[in-house]
Amino acid sequence: MDQHALGSQTSPRAAGLTSKADTLPTMARLRHEACLAFERFESEMGRTVDFHRSGSLRAAYTDAAVARVRIAQETARHMEKEGYALGGDRQVAAVITEVIAFLIQIADRIVYGQLSEEERVRFVNALGKHTARITSTNLAEFVGEGRYAREFVETLNARLADYSELEFNGREPSYSVLRYLGEKVSDAMQATDSKWVLEQVVDIEAPEAVKLIKKAVGEILGVKVA
Predict the structure, then answer these.
(1) Do residues 128 and 115 make contact, with C-beta atoms less than 8 angstroms apart?
(2) Partners of 168 in the beta sheet?
(3) Within this chain, do residues 36 and 85 fall inside the same structural domain, yes or no?
(4) Which of 77, 83, 105, 167 is 20 to 30 A off residue 54, Cα-Cα?
(5) Model pTM greater than 0.70?
């Protein structure tokens, strides 16, 4: 039995966070019922656990991940509209993966110095995990079952390591960063006959994606983006 006062050994606004989110519907319902039990605890048991609805950044992390996937998909669609054939589903997925890795790096640069180091690490890790799950689900639907999440995370880690060695101008990507993205997208499209991919990415697609991700991160997290 716990010898301390009820609810005294954890913070209801930090370590004691509850969550209703889950990938399985049954677990989501159980989490929801657990949260309701905390709300009713005092009235039903006559003891308080000092329950508060203060929330956390998890929802913001999820929204940010969804925004990155959406922007990456829009980038791929725009390239096709501009006449750049992306090829089959796997080529499209490869292009989207490259853009997502680029966007996560940009987001990391935006929040640097505005979130604590611990929160920044949590933010980037959460983005990677949420984005991997979303991307894996989409690929399973359109390409077929496979170990996409693992492949995505491996590519993401490799790209982020490379981007960390490149120069940024504050929160803005330098030409070397834009060119690196262009080269990776071009490599992903090697199976097609598309030319001038690197120039299209550097001059048009990447700057537009940066503008969109700045807007999304600023609105979701409430941080400065300029």
Answers:
(1) no
(2) 173
(3) no
(4) 105
(5) no
